User: Fold DUF5995 family protein from Streptomyces cylindrosporus.
Amino acid sequence: MRADNIDDVVDGLAGIVAEARRAGDRVGYFAALYRQVTVEVRKAIHAGRFEDGPRMDRFDTHFGNRYFEAYDAWRRDGSGPRCWRETFGLLDDADTVIVQHLLLGVNAHINLDLAVAAARTSPGADIQALRNDFLLINDILASVVLAVQDSVDALSPFMSLLDKVGGRTDEQILDFSIRQSREEAWYNAVLLAGQTEEQQTTTIDRLDIRAAVLARLIAHPGGLVRPALELIRRTEKDDVSAVITHLDGAMGGASAG
Assistant:
């Protein structure tokens, strides 16, 4: 699967979501979230919110192709970046809850793929001109996170209870985590943009290792998080296809067909 523009990215993600829904495949959880983020980015491009819309189209295309490459490699022979292998490797694990699947995808795509996509879009000194548009995506991500959090609450009654007790603390943590990760991704994008191809290979490998370690922590947390996840697992909806449909409609628009 290869995208040439942002429309191809949206269509490719919609295809993955639709097939996952038919097959009851949990890969559709993150794909549904990612599709909605991409749709919102496309809307922002069309509305002229970015300083350079065509550049953001190219950026989002590079970003999407990173995901498609990892997805295709996993489907082909279980290969691909370490962090994506950790993520896809848990798709058949019924004990991994919905929010963990979402966080695993977010971790791999932001902590590895985002910096690579930015550096490919604006190599060398051109990377600095990308910063404002790069940061604007934080606002788009925040709006999607809010909608998806509401969707997860409907699917996971215990998550909803935690929200009421904690004042949506989990959503605030997720939003902060995404913003923090994107700040680190920007630093790494600037680093990659100024490196030789050989240096980039070393840096990307380092980012992959770090994201893989984070994936293991998300998948197997310690402390009080473990019993909380067990309660979430016991109470949340276990119909994978229905969960995908619900997540894919979180923004209130048309879901993938």
